[in-house]
From TrEMBL, chain A:
Keywords carried by this UniProt record: ATP-binding, Nucleotide-binding, Transport
Protein name as annotated: Urea ABC transporter ATP-binding protein UrtD
PANTHER family given in the database record: CONSERVED COMPONENT OF ABC TRANSPORTER FOR NATURAL AMINO ACIDS-RELATED, HIGH-AFFINITY BRANCHED-CHAIN AMINO ACID TRANSPORT ATP-BINDING PROTEIN
Occurrences of domain ABC transporter (ranges): 29-269
Organism domain of life: Bacteria
Molecular functions (GO terms): ATP binding; ATP hydrolysis activity
Gene3D superfamilies documented for this protein: P-loop containing nucleotide triphosphate hydrolases
SUPFAM superfamilies named among the record's database cross-references: P-loop containing nucleoside triphosphate hydrolases
Listed GO CC annotations: plasma membrane
InterPro entries: ABC_AA/LPS_Transport (IPR051120), ABC_transporter-like_ATP-bd (IPR003439), ABC_transptr_urea_ATP-bd_UrtD (IPR017781), BCA_ABC_TP_C (IPR032823), P-loop_NTPase (IPR027417)
TrEMBL record, chain B:
GO-annotated molecular function: branched-chain amino acid transmembrane transporter activity
Protein name in UniProt: Urea ABC transporter permease subunit UrtC
Chain segments annotated as transmembrane: 12-33, 39-58, 65-87, 128-151, 158-176, 207-227, 254-274, 294-318, 330-354
GO CC terms: plasma membrane
Protein topology in the membrane: Multi-pass membrane protein
NCBIfam families: urea_trans_UrtC
């Protein structure tokens, strides 16, 4: 009974319900004038970025341009020094911590595949499943048939149904990447932040990842950070180039690649 | 279910059967066979085995929090001692006028200190039910407050381990003070009765052993159920990749707190079962060294398996009984040596060695139904 007091704490009550994200004005994610410094180094410098509802956006930029920091700010890992970050019109992400933001529907795949090696593929997906994530309900949680079907669907999508009872630690690097994407899907997110999804993948896996991401746009807003220009070209409608912590330019892949500033940053910098 | 689960299940079942046999057979033998029979266990050995089983329960509690939630608690002994003190306070109140000073209200040490009335926090402990509640509440509450502050501030790893060590050391110093009202240096002892029965009698010793064994079996089943629940899997995930779990929407600090408080209560129960069997509780139970020993039991037995903690606790303590009898000064060296050997040569402990011995036929079944 003492423990239950702890399970109903901050965040629990103020969480927006599904569908409360107000994206009627177009963008689902607003970052305005955001700055972050680490020991004097400006990781983000008055950055403003808008992601539309259902859009697939690619973020590119040289190392140290602030791509990962940007994801850290959106997911609550890093609090910016100034600026505002809104989810829809009404939800202020700067007032929420990581679990609250995740439950609100912003999910993240990390640069390094971060799956739980000691659990099976099935269990990894089960943990990600969108459901009551407080302690006591988690203790007594039993999967219903609908949820089992959902897990099987995602297993099909990420092409790992045969490996579902293997430990995730036994998967190949590419399979781990897929599993982590599957874990994002299990959370049924509004916004997916996908950091370097194709690192360590074979050519075939890369193609299937591109197909998967393309099939998800519209249903989810997706932000992909990737270095592989060929991959970016194959999926992107709109590309944002980051440089030294702010947006250098935005546009189609062709526009961006022919922009002299971009060429200078990549080649001349 | 994969291969390692199957071997685990076999060892788990063997440990369960062994526990049940010890728990039931020893009291039964003492009931059936006369005192001069070879199958009759002396009061001393009954208490000794009972003590091992309370340590096994204590080891089990640490394995929950260390083996599964990844929190290396170096102060688990503090919760054990608190549970022990709660039981000790009940036993003190049962002495009544039979104490040296014959005071019906006050325990001897209070009369000795010229106290005239019982401190407020001793009220209620004459009631067995209340005392048993405190056996769980006192360690649970301390763990809750401590864990709430530590986990919310995201204190982890070595830093957390060190402050748990400081916690038990602080309690050690506090309980040494006479002004605290817990008997100071001498602690609580000279117990006479438990629930109206003579605590020295052989029958009561057997019943205490039975209760300890049943508690341990119950706790093992409960822990097993918890680690196989979704909460158990979240705990394992927290152990391996804490920050990733946050991004899945779980409040990591509350899951750690849950396991931490649960383990503290289990340790409290172990302490409460320990005190009537050894006949004393004093501040030395808070000694940091005791808490370190618990870690060694779990490491020797095999961390993160539950039954490994039980095997480790019983074996190390048996070795301690034998070796301290043979050469008292060598014990700490043996303990330290065992810890180094286990860390270097068998990172999965004795259980890990067993598992490598009994390898089942490799029948990997990748497809099929859902994992349980």
């Amino acid at each position: 009974m003492m423990i239950s007091a702890a399970t109903t704490t901050e965040g629990g009550a103020s969480l927006p319900l599904d569908g409360e994200v107000d994206a009627r004005h177009g963008p689902i994610l607003y970052m305005e004038d955001v700055s972050v410094s680490f020991d004097g180094f400006r990781a983000l410098n008055h950055l403003s970025l808008y992601i539309d509802d259902g859009e697939l956006r690619c973020l590119i930029g040289p190392n140290g341009a602030g791509k990962t920091t940007l994801m850290d700010v959106i997911t609550g890992k890093t609090k910016p020094d100034s600026g505002s970050v809104f989810f829809g019109q009404t939800i202020d992400l700067l007032e929420m911590d990581e679990p609250a933001i995740a439950q609100a529907g912003i999910c993240r795949k990390f640069q390094k595949p971060s799956v739980f090696d000691a659990l099976t593929v099935f269990e990894n997906l089960e943990l990600a499943l969108k459901t009551d994530k407080r302690t006591w309900p988690t203790l007594f949680h039993k999967l219903n048939s609908e949820q089992r079907d959902r897990i099987q669907d995602v297993l099909q999508t990420i092409a790992l149904p045969a490996q579902q009872r293997q430990l995730a630690g036994a998967l190949s690097h590419g399979q781990k990447q897929w599993l982590e994407i599957g874990m994002l899907l299990m959370q049924d997110p509004k916004v997916m932040l996908v950091d370097e999804p194709i690192a360590g993948m074979t050519h075939q896996e890369v193609e299937r990842t591109a197909e998967l991401l393309l099939s998800l746009q519209g249903k989810h807003s997706i932000v992909v950070v990737e270095h592989d220009m060929e991959f970016v070209r194959s999926i992107a409608r709109k590309v944002t180039v980051l440089h030294e912590g702010s947006v250098l330019t935005e546009g189609t892949m062709d526009e961006v690649q022919n922009d002299p500033r971009v060429i200078q940053v990549y080649l001349g910098g | 279910m994969n291969i390692s689960n199957l071997t685990q299940d076999k060892t788990y079942a063997s440990v369960l059967i062994a526990l049940a046999s010890v728990t039931l057979l020893i009291p039964l033998c003492n009931l059936i066979f006369p005192e001069d029979s070879a199958l009759h266990f002396s009061a001393y050995s009954v208490s000794l085995i009972g003590k091992y089983l309370t340590f096994a329960l204590l080891g089990l509690s640490l394995d929950m929090v260390w083996g599964y939630a990844g929190i290396l608690v170096l102060g688990q002994g503090a919760f054990f001692a608190l549970g022990g003190y709660a039981m000790g306070m009940y036993l003190m109140r049962q002495i009544g006028t039979r104490g040296v000073y014959g005071n019906a209200e006050l325990p001897d040490f209070m009369v000795f200190l010229n106290w005239t009335e019982l401190p407020w926090y001793w009220n209620g402990f004459e009631n067995f039910g209340f005392a048993m509640l405190m056996v769980f509440l006192a360690p649970g509450l301390l763990a809750f407050i401590f864990g709430w502050l530590a986990f919310r501030s995201r204190v982890t790893g070595v830093y957390l381990s060190i402050i748990t060590q400081a916690l038990t050391y602080a309690l050690l110093l506090a309980f040494f003070r006479n002004e605290m009202g817990f008997g100071g240096n001498n602690g609580l002892t000279d117990f006479k009765d438990i629930l109206g029965f003579n605590i020295q009698s052989e029958a009561v010793r057997s019943v205490l052993l039975l209760m300890t064994g049943l508690s341990l079996i119950g706790a093992l089943l409960l822990c097993r159920w918890i680690v196989n629940s979704k909460l158990g899997r979240v705990a394992t995930a927290v152990r391996d990749q804490e920050s990733r779990v946050r991004f899945l929407g779980y409040r990591v600090e509350l899951f750690k707190l849950w396991v931490f408080v649960f383990a503290a209560m289990l340790a409290g129960l172990a302490g409460a079962l320990y005190v009537p069997q050894v006949g004393i509780i004093n501040p030395s139970e808070f000694s940091p060294l005791n808490s370190l020993e618990i870690v060694i039991w779990v490491a020797v037995g095999g961390r993160g398996t539950l039954y490994g903690a039980i095997i480790g606790a019983v074996l190390v303590n048996y070795a301690k009984t034998v070796l301290t009898g043979l050469m008292p000064d060598a014990w700490l060296f043996c303990l330290g040596g065992a810890f180094i050997l286990v860390t270097l040569l068998m990172p999965d402990g004795i259980v890990g060695l067993l598992r490598r011995r009994i390898k089942p036929k490799p029948t990997l079944n990748a497809t099929g139904g859902q994992p349980a």
